[in-house]
Write a structure and sequence with these properties.
This protein is mainly alpha-helical. It is built from five helices and four strands; from the N terminus they run H-E-H-H-E-H-E-E-H.
């Protein structure tokens, strides 16, 4: 298990988020799980902190809680962006059974 420097982990998280296609989403935990083998870290909370501090220029609205809930405090903007991208929804949550994306997928 490799360990990376904190700055490298921030860059890795943001690189994954940048790859999430329009109309798709990943949970904080899925991002942490995807990066865990290479980074030695697996914390959805850490991914959330990174997104809060550094994710402003990334498609942050495509990162949601495991239950599909959008970013607290930015619900209106996140929902508008997700609906605009035709992301599958269940009410005010992303339908991760249809919208979930993994970096090894082609779309």
């Amino acid at each position: 298990m490799a360990c990376v420097e904190p700055e490298e982990y921030v860059e890795a998280v943001l690189a994954v988020v940048e790859r999430i296609p329009s109309g798709r989403a990943m949970s904080y935990g899925a991002i942490a799980d995807y990066l865990s083998e290479a980074s030695g870290r697996s914390s959805a909370r850490l991914v959330g902190s990174i997104m809060a501090k550094h994710g402003g220029s990334a498609p942050w609205h495509r990162v949601v809680a495991a239950n599909g809930r959008v970013v607290p405090g930015h619900e209106g903007e996140a929902l508008a962006r997700l609906v605009g991208e035709a992301t599958p929804m269940k009410g005010d949550r992303v339908d991760l059974s249809r919208a979930a994306w993994w970096p090894d997928q082609s779309s």
